[in-house]
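From the pipeline queue, job 12 of 40. The input is one protein chain; the requested action is below.

Action: predict structure.
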Amino acid sequence: MSYKKLGKRIQRAREEAGLNQEQLAGILGCSQPTLSNYEKGKSRIYLAQLQKVADALNKPITYFLEAMEPAEAEMQIPRPNEDPATDPDSVLINVDKEILEIIRVLYSLPAENRKAVREFVLWEQHRVRREKDNG
């Protein structure tokens, strides 16, 4: 993933919104140096924080996720307890093309349908874990 490319997207969207770094950092609840590091590609940004950026700048999250380089795309999950379900906001923004496509489709669905998809995904996760435990 090119964090520099993502950072440039964040900077461009911020400038298009007519905000300076200090203003956007205030909206996001982070420091101006932290935002600067995101924009320079010096720091990883978590998906939850990227969603806040997207919301604040009135952009779909896919606008930022498309800055990824496909050759390096893979999901990375920090595993403090070896279980990503314990901290779903810790998913980093390195996602593969299939995940990106799922995100695009989800954004096109009404909220009620997204709820149904979420419930199915959670059910499927539970089913797979149960099979793994019994396997």
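Job complete. Residues 71-92 have pLDDT under 50 and may be disordered.
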